[in-house]
Design brief:
heterodimer; A: 174 residues; mainly alpha; Butyryl-CoA Dehydrogenase, subunit A, domain 3; B: 183 residues; alpha/beta; Double Stranded RNA Binding Domain; Arc Repressor Mutant, subunit A; 2 domains; four-stranded mixed beta sheet; 7 helices; 6 strands
Chain lengths: 174, 183
Amino acid sequence: MGGTGEVGTSRFGGRRRLIHDLTALPPFQRLIDEHASEVMAVLRGAVGRGDADDCFQETFLAALRAYPKLEDTRNLRGWLLTIAHRKAIDHHRANGRKPLPVAEVAETATHDPEPDGEVWALVGALPPKQRAAVSLRYACDLPHAEIAAALGCSPEAARRSLHEGMKRLRKELT
Amino acid sequence: MTNALQGLAARAEAEGLLDVAYATVDSPFGSLLVAATPRGLVKLSLPNYDPEEALEDLAARVSPRVLEAPARLEEARRELDLYFEGKLTEFDLPIDWQLTGGFRGRVQRAIARIPYGKTRSYTELARSAGNERAVRAAGTACGSNPIPVVVPCHRVLRSGGALGGYGGGLPMKEGLLKLEGIL
């Protein structure tokens, strides 16, 4: 009976502990602490501010449901962003792919006190793939390969979605 | 963001996904971490322990679905506050004993029955757990008590009356015994 709760008293204990720590699931709260703001930023881009809270909760509830059986703990961030992306797509499907209503577009250029306001609203109105690619690239700063992994497509397709999305945004903004 | 997070904890609770809820509670000895399953209080971590390690331990031994969700711990917090003010002598909280078992579990349940303001020796404790000769094991069981303060292992002393040990450090043990008017 050890009794002190310490591990590593045997010669191989330290190694066992190390392997355990590398594969153990961290307390779920840590995922929230580390990734919640990023997930929220992506969802605001993807579905708009009004619906982001709900999609955010749906994302983390789905993650929480699946979490105990998750086997690969190496890329928890990518895993969460993938779920967020799916929830955003579900959201748009449920809404019949209605483009998000965009508040009046100003005739003249004005300073937007909330820098992401107008642009993200336009991002929210893009077709799903383009919207996701743009959000993952600019809200999460993901490289093309990771965007492809999150979207479940080839890097080439991810690059194309991003390019199309950006082209459309540029056109709308000028 | 705060609203989204609070809503998340509430929805997780409603869907039965909140396996371990935790909160921190201030005490005169520093910050305590308290954690509860749907069955009851499962862990209280004393100020000199790393709360992150306590949470990792809960994730590994109870469930990785560990969320900061103070709502489930409101009653525990209320009773602990009153206890540290000297206004509560008996905790009335459901306990989840799953982090303990066997002889240790019996010792810890015996500790839970020691009344406020009274003490027991390790020998007496071993006897009330059903094995008078297992004094050393009784000491170990005190040391591995997952819910100190509420399960009052600070009321267990050496036979001569010496303080013995305490996971939270001897000054805390002394402080608790003074609070209860034992010292």
